[in-house]
Every structure is written in C-alpha cells, then in structure tokens.
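Bug report

Summary: structure tokens for Bacitracin resistance protein differ between web form and batch submission.
Environment: batch mode, default settings.
Steps: 1) Submit the sequence below via batch. 2) Compare with the web form result.

Sequence submitted:
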Amino acid sequence: MALSEANIYLFRLINDLGKQYPHFNSSFVFIAEYMVYFLALSVIYFWFRRNEHSRIMVICAGSTFIVSEMIGKIAGKIHSNYQPFSELPNVNQLIEKAVDNSFPSDHTILFFSFCMTFWLFKKGSGLLWLLLAIIVGISRIWVGVHYPADVIVGAVISIFSTIVVYFTLPKLTFINHALELYEKIERYVSRPKIKTKDF
C-alpha cells in the first residue's frame, strides 16, 4: 500500500467515525477548535505561579514551538497537500477552514510543543498533557481538516524539537540571567507603594 493510500485509508478510518457516532462530533469540534484557549490559560497560570521551574518550562515550551514552526515551514516547502475536505469526496467536515497547505498540522505542532515540554518537566502529571496533545491531533482528523500524515509529521517535528530544547536551553546562562532580570523588575513593579502623609 503506497504512503498516500495509507494516509487516505487512515483518514477515512478516523473521519468516518463521525458519521458512525455523530453524538461525539460536538466534543471533537470543541477539542479541535477551542482547546487552544485552555492551553493558553494553562501557560498563563504556570507563568504567574512565580516559580522558576514553571517559568523555565514555559520558556522552553515557547522556544520549542518557534523552532518547530520553523522546521514545519521548511517541511511544508518540501511537501504540500490541501485539506482532506478539499481533495476527497464525502468528507465529514465539521469546521470551516480556508483551503491552503495543511502539511504539517500547525495545531499539532503547537500542542505537542507545549504538552511534550510539560510532560518532560512535570513527570507524574505530565502524561495527561501528552494525552491531550494526541487527542487534539486525532480531533483535527475527525473534523476533516487534516490527514494523519499532517498530524504525525507535526508531532514528530515537535517531539524532536522539544527534546533538543529541553536538554540545551535551561543550561544557557543568558536565559537564566534574562529570567532573573525579569523577576527583579516584576518584584519592583508589584511591590506595594508606600504612601506619604501630607502635613
């Protein structure tokens, strides 16, 4: 079976589940479209815990996303394909999306960059973040906007980038100095102002 045939076969396998089990469609639409807001709120929460470990984790995750997106753009120049709903008949398309190059999946790159980083930093509870990234990737196929190959390549790019960043960035002196400077400024700005009495 050729790669393209396998790609289409796996897409049909997942996407057709929406036709067989339509009561799950609203859940997968929510995951595919709106789980990104949960991720954003989680990043804000981790940052404002004012914990050095959490902040280094967020910096690593953001850096991983930037690196992964750059690699993803290069991959998109080497290979490109449009969304399944624009190339295949009878696709169970559940969300609106402009037709463009869907390879690799930006959503998958975003979630695996952050969730894989959270997994490496958080150990115990980190597995839940990894499961979230996988579910988001599957949801993009379920709603008809990505092929499995779009998702798999996006995940592989992010996993590779995460590992590289995780083992290098926290050791960089200028990153730690920059974080220390930020925290000094933050403490200065947030410290209570002493009011003087007028006589």
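Above is the batch result. After comparison, the two runs are identical; trailing whitespace caused the diff. The mean pLDDT is 91. Residues 26-181 form one domain.
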